[in-house]
C-alpha cells in the first residue's frame, strides 16, 4: 500500500484514501507548532477509560499527582459527548532535554484512596494523556508480525499479580513512566516538531535513605549515577498506609517522520485484506441482485408490457394475470400514510447526514487530530438536513392527498428525535448515577436542545412548506374507487417472511465492516478507514434498492398491491440483524460485567439500529417508488 497521506487539495486521491500517490499538504486539525531546544512541553491529561465498564472518569477522580491549579481545556460538543475531560498536569518537559527519574509527588495511601486505585485496577482502566494534540500510546509488537507494532490508547492504572510463593492476589500501581517523545527537526531552521508520544509504564517500589524531603535522592533510580528503572525492581503495592512515589523519565528521539504524517503509524491498517474481502463479498451480492433486476427489467417486463399493449378487448385484459392486474390499486393510499411520510422524511434527513459526513471523512476533514470532530459534524449536519427531511415528508404527504402539511411537518420534526432523546436521557441518567465524566452536563444538554429546536425544527418546517407548495406528483395510472381483493398468498410471499428475508442481504453487505466499527467504539481503537467505509456504504445503498425492487416485483406479480410499507420494512429489517449481531458481539468480544455498562451498550446499539432502520428503509422505499412508477407508466391503460 502506498504511503498514506492526509487531506489534500486533490479530491480524487482522497476519495480512495488508501492509495495516494500524490504528495499533498495536511489540512485538518491544529496547525503545526515549532519548538526550540529547551521550550516547555506541557502534557495534558484526559479521561480514564475502560473497555470493561465503558464508563469514563476524569483523571483527577482518583488521587493522582495534581498541579497547583487544575485548568480545564475547552472541549467541543463531540468531545463532551465522548466523555473527554482534558486538563493540565504536573508533567512538564523541555524540548530535546532528557530527564531521568524526576519525582512528581509523594502519596501516602489511606483506606479510601487505596480502594479507589484498586477498583480502577480491577476494571482495567487506562490513563490517557496528550502532548501537542497527540494521544499517549503504548507500543506493542504483534505476536504474528515481529516487525509490526500495535499502539494501545494510554497505559493501565496498574496490574494484579502474586508474589512468588504466595497465592494471594495483590494490586500493583504503575507509578513510574518512561516517556518517549519523537520529534522531526528541520535542518535549516533547527525548529523541532513533535511526531510521536509513547510511554512504557513500570510499577516500582522506590527506596531512599533517611527521612523524605524535597532533596532526597532515590536509590532505585538516580539521575546523578545514571541509574535507570530496568523493570526488575520490586513492584509498588496498593494498600492502606503504603507510600507511593510517582516518577518519570523522558527520552527524546529524532524521527524521519514529518509532522503531516505523524498520525500514519497510529492509523496504519495491517489487515486491509479483510476489508477487500468484505468489499468483494458485498460486490458478489450486488452482482447477483443486479442480474435479477436486469432480468426483470429487460426480459420479463419488456415482454409483459409489449403483450399487454397489444391487447384490444376488455375481455383479454381481464384474462391477464400478474402485476398488471393491480394497476388500479397499486397507488392507493396506504394505511397509516402519515406515519410513513414521517419515517420517509426522517430517513432522508438521516441519509443526507450520513452521506455528507462520509464524504467529508473520506476527504480527511474529520481526522482523529480533531477530537470529537466526527460527532460534532454529524450533529450539525443532522440539524441542517432537516430542510430536505421536511421537504420529502411534505411532498409524499401531498401525494396521499393530505391537506394539513403543518401537522405532518411537526411529526417529522419531533417523532424520531423525541424517541432518541428519551433513550439518551435515560442512559445519561444512569451515567450520572455512576458519577462518570461521560455524563452530559446541563450546558451541553442545552446545546443539543438548541440544535433541535433552534435549527432543525425551523428547517424542517421551511422544507415542508417548500415541498407542499410544489405541484402534486401525478400517478401514472388512475386508482379505482373500489379496492381489489388480494388473493391468498403462498407461504413464501407472506409479508413477515419476505420482510425478514429482505434484510439479510443488505446486512451481509456490511457486517464485516460493522465488526471494525464496533471494535473502534467499544474497544477504544483507532478507526480511520473511511475510504473503505464509503465504498461499503454505496454497496449497501445499491443492495437495499435492488433487493426491495426484486421482492416488490414478486409481490405485485402475486396480485398483492400493498407495497408501500412493505418496501420500507423489507430493507429496513436489516437493522434487526444489526442488533442481533451487536448482541452476539457483546457476548463474544466484550468483557463487560457491570449491569449498568450492559444497559448502556444495548441502549446505544438500539439507537444505532434505529438510525440504520430509517436509512435503509428509506432507500428501499424510494427504489420501489421509482420502480412502480416506471413500470406502470410504460403500460397503456384505457
Features:
638 residues, disordered N terminus, alpha+beta, 13 strands, 14% strand
Helices and strands, with pairings:
Blueprint: H1 11-16, E1 40-49, H2 77-82, E2 87-94, E3 99-108, H3 111-122, E4 126-131, E5 134-135, E6 137-141, E7 149-153, E8 155-156, E9 158-161, E10 170-173, E11 176-185, E12 192-202, E13 243-254, H4 264-267, H5 272-310, H6 314-319, H7 337-362, H8 373-384, H9 386-399, H10 405-433, H11 442-469, H12 495-502, H13 504-522, H14 530-557, H15 564-572, H16 574-589, H17 595-633
Parallel strand pairs: 11-13
Antiparallel strand pairs: 1-2, 1-4, 3-13, 4-5, 4-8, 6-7, 9-10, 11-12
Helix pairs in contact: 5-13, 5-14, 7-8, 7-9, 7-10, 7-14, 7-17, 8-11, 9-10, 9-11, 10-11, 10-17, 12-15, 13-14, 13-16, 14-15, 14-17, 15-17, 16-17
Descriptive account of the structure:
With 638 residues, the chain is α+β, with helices and mostly antiparallel strands. It has 17 helices and 13 strands. Strands 1, 2, 4, 5 and 8 form a five-stranded antiparallel sheet that branches. The chain has a four-stranded mixed sheet with strand order 3-13-11-12, with no helix packed on it. A two-stranded antiparallel ribbon has the order 6-7. Helix 9 runs parallel beside helix 11 and helix 16 packs antiparallel against helix 17. The radius of gyration is 30 Å and the shape is elongated. The N and C termini lie far apart (62 Å). 38% of the residues are buried. The N terminus is likely disordered.
Amino acid at each position: 500500500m502506498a504511503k498514506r497521506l492526509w487531506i489534500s487539495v486533490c479530491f480524487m486521491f482522497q476519495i480512495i484514501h488508501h492509495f495516494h500517490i500524490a504528495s499533498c499538504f495536511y489540512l485538518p486539525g491544529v496547525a503545526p507548532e515549532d519548538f526550540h531546544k529547551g521550550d516547555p512541553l506541557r502534557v495534558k491529561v484526559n479521561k480514564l477509560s475502560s473497555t470493561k465498564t465503558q464508563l469514563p472518569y476524569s483523571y483527577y477522580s482518583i488521587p493522582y499527582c495534581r498541579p497547583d491549579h487544575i485548568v480545564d481545556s475547552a472541549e467541543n460538543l463531540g468531545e463532551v459527548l465522548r466523555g473527554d475531560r482534558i486538563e493540565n498536569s504536573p508533567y512538564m518537559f523541555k524540548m530535546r532535554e532528557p530527564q531521568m527519574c524526576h519525582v512528581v509527588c509523594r502519596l501516602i495511601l489511606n483506606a479510601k484512596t487505596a480502594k479507589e486505585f484498586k477498583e480502577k485496577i480491577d476494571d482495567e482502566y487506562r490513563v490517557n494523556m496528550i502532548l501537542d494534540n497527540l494521544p499517549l500510546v503504548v507500543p506493542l509488537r504483534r505476536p504474528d508480525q515481529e516487525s509490526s507494532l500495535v499502539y494501545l490508547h494510554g497505559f493501565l492504572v496498574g496490574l494484579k499479580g502474586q508474589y512468588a510463593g504466595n497465592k494471594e492476589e495483590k494490586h500493583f500501581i504503575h507509578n513510574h513512566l518512561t516517556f518517549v517523545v519523537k520529534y522531526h527537526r528541520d535542518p535549516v531552521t533547527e525548529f523541532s516538531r513533535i511526531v510521536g508520544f509513547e510511554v512504557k509504564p513500570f510499577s516500582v517500589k522506590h527506596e531512599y535513605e533517611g527521612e523524605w524531603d524535597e532533596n532526597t535522592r532515590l536509590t532505585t533510580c538516580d539521575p546523578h549515577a545514571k541509574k535507570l528503572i530496568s523493570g526488575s525492581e520490586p513492584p509498588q503495592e496498593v494498600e492502606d498506609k503504603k507510600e507511593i512515589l510517582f516518577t518519570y523519565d523522558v527520552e527524546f528521539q529524532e524521527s524521519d517522520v514529518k509532522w503531516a504524517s505523524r498520525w500514519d503509524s497510529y492509523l496504519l491498517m495491517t489487515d486491509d485484506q479483510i476489508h477487500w474481502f468484505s468489499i468483494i463479498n458485498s460486490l458478489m451480492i450486488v452482482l447477483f441482485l443486479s442480474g435479477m433486476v436486469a432480468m426483470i427489467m429487460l426480459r420479463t417486463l419488456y415482454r409483459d408490457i409489449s403483450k399487454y399493449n397489444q391487447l384490444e378487448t376488455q375481455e383479454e385484459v381481464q384474462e391477464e394475470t400478474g402485476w398488471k392486474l393491480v394497476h388500479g390499486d397499486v397507488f392507493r393510499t396506504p394505511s397509516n400514510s402519515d406515519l410513513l411520510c414521517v419515517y420517509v422524511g426522517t430517513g432522508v434527513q438521516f441519509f443526507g447526514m450520513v452521506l455528507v459526513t462520509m464524504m467529508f471523512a473520506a476527504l480527511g476533514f474529520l481526522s482523529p487530530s480533531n477530537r470529537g470532530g466526527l460527532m460534532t459534524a454529524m450533529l450539525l449536519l443532522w440539524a441542517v438536513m432537516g430542510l430536505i427531511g421536511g421537504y420529502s415528508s411534505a411532498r409524499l404527504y401531498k401525494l396521499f392527498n393530505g391537506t394539513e402539511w403543518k401537522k405532518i411537518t411537526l411529526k417529522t420534526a419531533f417523532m424520531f428525535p423525541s424517541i432518541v432523546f428519551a433513550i439518551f436521557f435515560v442512559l445519561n441518567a444512569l451515567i450520572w448515577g455512576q458519577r462518570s465524566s461521560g455524563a452530559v452536563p446541563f450546558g451541553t444538554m442545552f446545546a443539543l436542545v438548541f440544535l433541535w429546536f433552534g435549527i432543525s425544527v425551523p428547517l424542517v418546517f421551511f422544507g415542508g412548506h417548500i415541498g407542499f407548495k410544489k405541484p402534486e406528483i401525478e400517478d401514472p395510472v388512475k386508482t379505482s374507487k373500489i379496492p381489489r381483493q388480494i388473493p391468498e398468498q403462498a407461504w413464501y410471499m407472506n409479508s413477515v417472511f419476505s420482510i425478514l428475508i429482505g434484510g439479510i442481504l443488505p446486512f451481509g453487505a456490511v457486517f464485516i465492516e460493522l465488526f471494525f466499527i464496533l471494535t473502534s467504539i467499544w474497544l477504544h481503537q483507532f478507526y480511520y478507514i473511511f475510504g473503505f467505509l464509503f465504498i461499503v456504504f454505496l454497496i449497501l445503498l445499491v443492495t437495499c434498492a435492488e433487493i426491495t425492487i426484486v421482492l416488490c416485483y414478486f409481490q405485485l406479480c402475486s396480485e398483492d398491491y400493498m407495497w408501500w410499507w412493505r418496501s420500507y420494512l423489507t430493507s429496513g429489517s436489516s437493522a434487526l440483524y444489526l442488533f442481533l449481531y451487536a448482541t452476539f458481539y457483546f457476548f463474544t468480544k466484550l468483557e463487560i460485567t457491570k449491569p449498568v455498562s450492559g444497559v448502556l451498550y444495548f441502549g446505544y446499539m438500539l439507537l444505532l439500529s434505529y438510525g440504520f432502520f430509517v436509512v435503509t428503509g428509506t432507500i428501499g422505499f424510494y427504489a420501489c417508488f421509482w420502480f412502480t412508477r416506471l413500470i406502470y407508466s410504460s403500460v397503456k391503460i384505457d
